[in-house]
Amino acid sequence: MGVVSDAATLVVDAPEASLDFLFAERAGEQLAKFAESSAENRVIITSYLPSDHLLRTFFASSETSEDRKSRIVNLIAYAAPNAALRADREAYEKFLAHVIEGTRADA
């Protein structure tokens, strides 16, 4: 008899603001390992994107920007525009584009 594996979903409220870059990258690696350990596993990460370290590392094995984009729900696109969003929407979109492209946002 083969090994029976149940699908699992992990929901993480990412505390990047309290993580240094190295820990954020390690957390991204561990979350990716969990997601990749079973084709039916799912990881849901909520993030307000203070840095790209966790998400860039999480998506490292994703080969295309189309694949990364299909896995992101950009809540900013659905948000009622407040003053910050009206003033800085382009910066938010540029940052997210770096995550989707798999490049460093500070490069």
Number of domains: 1
Order of helices and strands: EHEHHH
The main sheet comes to: 2 strands, parallel
Strand portion, in percent? Answer: 5-15%
Largest beta sheet: strand ordering: 1-2
The helix content is: 40-55%
Radius of gyration: 15 Å
Q: Count of helices?
A: 4
Judged by helices, strands and strand pairing, the structural class is mainly alpha
| Total number of strands | 2
- Overall outline: globular
Described by its quaternary structure, the protein is single chain
Ranges where pLDDT stays below 50 over 5 or more residues in a row are none
Gap between N and C termini: 51 Å
Average pLDDT, rounded to a whole number, is 86
Quickly list its features.
mainly alpha; 4 helices; 2 strands; two-stranded parallel sheet; 44% helix; 107 residues; single chain
Structure, described:
The protein is built from four helices and two strands; from the N terminus they run E-H-E-H-H-H. It is mainly alpha-helical. It has one domain. A two-stranded parallel ribbon has the order 1-2.
Give a topology summary.
Layout lengths: L8 E5 L7 H16 L5 E5 L6 H6 L6 H6 L12 H19 L6
Parallel strand pairs: 1-2
What can be said about this structure in brief?
The chain is built from 4 helices and 2 strands.
